[in-house]
Structures are given as structure tokens and as C-alpha cells.
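During the reporting period, we have paired protein sequences with C-alpha cells. One record among many follows, to show the layout:
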Amino acid sequence: MDRLARKFYDLAIKEGEGLGTVYEYLVKYKLLNKILPKGRNHKVLVAGLPEKYGYSSDFFSFCEERDLDYEIIDERTDRIDRFKQIFKKTYSSKVSAQSCNLCVLDDIYSQRHFDLALSCEVLQRLSLDNQIRYIRSLKKIAKKVILFVPNGDSNGHQSHSGLNTVTMGAIIKQLDIADSGKHYDTGYIDMPPWPPGAKGSPLKSDIGRAICNISLNILQVISALEPFYPQFFKLKYAHLIYIVW
């Protein structure tokens, strides 16, 4: 079994999540490796923790493995406190995590303070005006930004996951309003063989562990095939939209 899949499975269980989160972490981690060059000491901001599913452990794993300097912010103190508990059980290093208003980050950090800002499952929980303020703030304080947002074009996403969603067209419109620059890349990601919001519980028996190992191996194969899916399939079945600028 791939080391990364096992690592993300262990992290997802600590977060109270299951195989759906493992798959999400796998495909996002691969995208981050593709986008961000190796061999540079980047300064990273994780600009908000997910609304409901997990704690973006793929982001922290990526930063820890690259030995990057990073900070975490979120406006919910209870979410920050829970994250610190999970992090302490997983990593020996200390983490900078604080509570602050996500829509005024440019009042807290200087211009282009970070090399990279990461965000997953954050934008959709803000009001429309605050979404634009959030994007503008990220544009000012980070040289590169990668957003992951629940896909509003996906079949039944909102009813299955309980999250608000945003369509690709709406995000592009917000980027134009926020004057984030016209050079950005977009795409669809996270297409596991189950609907959004589904969880796989850990199985502790010998048979359960064998089933889990087989499932992780299957997820690795599916995640490798995902980039080659046709666009119409991604539009309707991807759980997340990603935007890079």
C-alpha cells in the first residue's frame, strides 16, 4: 500500500473522518505537488479551516514534508482549539494557529507577505460580499493562491453534504469583481466512487483491516485516473472546484 494513502487514512481517522476524506487529501496533495516547485522555502498561509469535513491535514502534511514555514487562521476559536489537539498528536513541531476575521487579512499581514495561500471549504460559508473581500485580501497578501470550493454544478452536492456550493461561473465572476487578475487556472477535482458527505467508518477486525487496505489501494488507482476523466463528467461529479492565481 502507498505510504501516502496510509498516512492520510490515519490522519482522517484522527479528524473523525473516513475514506472520503482520504481520497480528497490524495488528489489535492498531488495537485499541490504539481503546482508548487520543490526546493524553495515558501511561506504558506492556510486561510481558514474547512467548514465541516476534516481539518485540511493534507495542507499541513504537505508543508511538514517540504519543511515550509506556515500559519493557520480561522475565525472559529473552537475549530482552532480542536485542530491544535489533532496536530499535537500527529507532529512534534509547534504550529502557529490563531483566530481572526478572514475578510480583513490585508489589515493583519503586509502585501505579498506569503508565497502561497491555501483554502478549502471556506469561501462557500461566507456571504457574497465577504467572499469578494476574502478574495481581495488573499490577492494582496499572497503571491499565489489556491482555493478549493464545493462544486455547485455537481449533482446533489448540497443535499448530500449539507454545505453551500459555488459554481465555476460564480467564482470567475467574483475573481473579476475582486480584480484578482485575469491569469488564473481553474479545474474540477475530488471524484471518489460515492456522493459528497459520505463517510467510511474504520473497521478494527482482521477482516475489517483487510477491507480497508483493499479500499485504499482502489482509491489510489482511481485518484491516478481522475485527471483523465472527460470534462462533462468532472463538471457533474467532482466534489470540488479549484482555482489558482
Observations:
- The chain has one domain: 3-237+240-244.
- Residues 51 and 242 are 16 Å apart (CA to CA).
- The chain has ten helices and seven strands.
